[in-house]
Amino acid sequence: MACAGQPAGVGPSEGGPRPARADGDPVASTATDPAPAPTSTPLPPRRPALGTPADWVELLRLPALFTVPGDALAGAAVAGRAPGTRTLLAIGSSLCLYQAGMALNDWADRAEDAVERPHRPLPSGRIAPGAALAAAGALTALGLALAARAGRPALTVAVPLAATVWAYDLGLKRNWAGPPVMAAARSLDLVLGAAASGGRVRDAVPSAAALGAHTLAVTAVSRRETQGGSTAVPLAALAVTSGVAYALTPPVVALRLPADRGGAAPLGLPGLTPAPVGALRAALALGYAATVARPLAHAVLNSSPPLTQRAVGGGIRAMIPLQAALSARAGAPLTALCTAALAPLARRFARKVSVT
Asked: Which of 59, 165, 271, 316 has the fewest beta carbons closer than 10 A?
């Protein structure tokens, strides 16, 4: 029988000796010793996850930003203008709008990414959805402000460009209109460079169409980068990008005679050298074709998700030699070389952070 007020099995048995301490004093039973009151430390209020710089680098796909400046540079080149302060403002506007689209894209896809890409910053909880949406809004406002500083023609192009980005991410990308809308956004980005530089926008239309065709093909492939299973889409994209490469290649490389040969040297004999601009244009067209065609061909042969994602990444990086080739075709070799110099940086950083 237990002591009064003490649960059975806890204290000493009735009539038995009470245990003693080492100094001989009896130890008080647990029934008479008050138990310490349980203490609970209140949890700090949960703050929205703002993420680390590395998380934002992943969210915004910063390696893909190297593909953006060439749009405005090519736009200025095809409009017959040398890059200037307004061109730099157009580049800044393009970078902001591009990053806004990246943040908005992941915000809109957060439920889908929780299943297919749980490691991404939003579904993994590293960045709160509200923070990504706020960043998209702030970057859009900054992009429009920079375009306004470049002049009214630039702002006239930047406003529909921003609207296209938001419309794509908030719904249009989920239906047939997705690839054409993305192609329109990239084409408008090139036109933004032409408008900001003070050139005639109509002169930029053919180059914008070439860039849009490439973007259309790559975006169509990207719609199945997590599932794979389609060879028809990569095959069609390969055909489109091959046509773009063919259009960029000069039909006949211009030839120049050395001074000691004069005009008497017949065509095709030794001593003929290609003109520098024509050779640069041909080399850049070849570089574009090699960058985009190889991964697309692999996706045609095996349309698994990893190879499809690699094809999308190659298509994104191929925009740099494409932009450079457009500038070379417009007779701006220095602009073309500056644009082409971004390709190694994009390739290097893409090894650390995915561009898709």
From this structure: 271
